[in-house]
Structure formats: structure tokens, C-alpha cells
Amino acid sequence: MTYTETDLVASMERLAGDGLAALTQEQWDQFDQFHAGGSEAVERVLPSLHLAPGMTVLDVGSGLGGPARQVARSSGCTVVGVDVTPAYVDAAQELTHTAGLAEQVRFFCSDIAAFDGSEFDAAYTMHVQMNVADKKTYFAEIGRRLRPGAHFATFEVCLSGETQPTPPLPWSLDGTDSFLATADELRATIQSSGFELVEWVDETAWVRQWFENIGARIGGRRYPNHPPRAPDRRLTRMLNFAIALDTGILTIHRGSFNLAP
């Protein structure tokens, strides 16, 4: 199983060398935005959600809650995060309390198919469906939680051909729980699950540049040969991810959809 980390908040504070309450937002983003593009990727997704204060947004696969808190801060919306990993949900709740957003952002440990919630104004996923084998059911279950015409956005990892990336990866330690689809397959699956396409954008070049900028900041080289150790091999996993993007094995696509009436 890929997501088995424990004591996540304590690990973050140990790596930061300070309590999370003392960190800047930029420092927070280094810990709670575990997806390519970080907080900047969330900014690229936000416009397609058409949010306004008073709306309620569903974050499917919410992880540590970084995107949910960012969406809440920037839009004034209420955000509900759903994730299947208990340790991530516990950490997301603690981080949200520390950030002073507990009344605006909530998290539940649940599979989306078992989640008791509906009539959301918008929803999004960021780097989630790579672990989902039955993608059509997954996206259909998201649609069941939305009101007709609601906006849905994705920022997802896709396979460019038949070659698989080398594990470990952020979403899979050994490849056994990785279920990658091509961009065309993913887009068609979402559409066949009850969504109408608004926009489908290849963000691979932008994400490659983001990885280059990260590499320059942490090591002065594009891909450090010996990244610092982290408790969950996170840097090694991100390194393999970056290489797969750079060599054309993987792509990143941002999608915007509306739930069909």
C-alpha cells in the first residue's frame, strides 16, 4: 500500500525545524501540496470552478488538505475534503485547525462511493485517479454528489503511450496500485460518466518548468543525484515523477467540465 505514512504533522515540523503555526504560507505549501505544480497548479484550476462566497466545494482525494485550504482562502467557499487514508485525514484536520480554517474546511475519511453528501456547487480532483482502476464508476460517483450544471475540474497525471514510469512514484511504491490512462482515455471516461467537456489543456510543459525551478532551488541542479532523505522517500518518488515527465512517458492534463443536466 502506498499511503502508509504516520505522525505526518510531527514529521513536517521536524523537517521544518519549527512549529507549523510559525511558518509562512510559502513554507506550508512545501508540505501540504503533494502534487506537481504545488499551489500554482491550484491557481490554474480555480478559474474553471467559477466559485463565489457561500458555495460548497467537494475536494475528492483531499490528501493533506493544502488545495482545500487554498480554495477556501481564495474564494470564501466552504470546502469538504474526502480521502480514503486515515492518517491524511487526521493530518488535514490538524493542519486546518492550525491555519484557523476549521469552520470553513472539513475532511472525511471515506471512499467517494460511500460518502454521504450531495448537491455540491463544484468539485475537483488533483492527482487522484492514478490509483483508481474503475475510473468510470469513480467519476460517476463524483457526479452524483453535484447539483445539475455544477462545475468539475481535474489536474491529473496521464500516460503518453504503453511505457510505464519507473517506481517508486508519488502515488505508487511498486506500481501494483497504479492504473494510468492516456489523456484521451481519461477525457473520454469523464465525459462518459455524465460530464460535458469545457476545456482540456496539456499542462506538461508548464509542470516540467515547475520541476526545473524546484530542482534549482533545492540543489542547484536539475535532478539532484542524491536527494535528501525523507521519511516516506518522498523526494525519490517526486524525482522519478519528474524524469517520467521529462522523457515523455507521462503528461499532465487539466480538464474543465460541467455536470450534464
TrEMBL record:
Highest taxon of source? Bacteria
InterPro entries with a match to the protein in the record: Erg6_SMT_methyltransf, Methyltransf_11, SAM-dependent_MTases_sf
Q: Which UniProt keywords apply?
A: Methyltransferase, Transferase
* Alphabetized GO MF terms: S-adenosylmethionine-dependent methyltransferase activity
What SUPFAM superfamilies has UniProt attached to this entry? Answer: S-adenosyl-L-methionine-dependent methyltransferases (SSF53335)
Q: Does the keyword Methyltransferase apply?
A: yes
* Methyltransferase type domain location: 58-153
Question: What sections of the sequence does the record tag as coiled-coil?
Answer: none
Gene3D superfamilies named in the record: Vaccinia Virus protein VP39
Q: Which GO terms describe its biological process?
A: methylation
- Please give the name of this protein: Methyltransferase domain-containing protein
Q: Which organism is it from?
A: Actinacidiphila oryziradicis
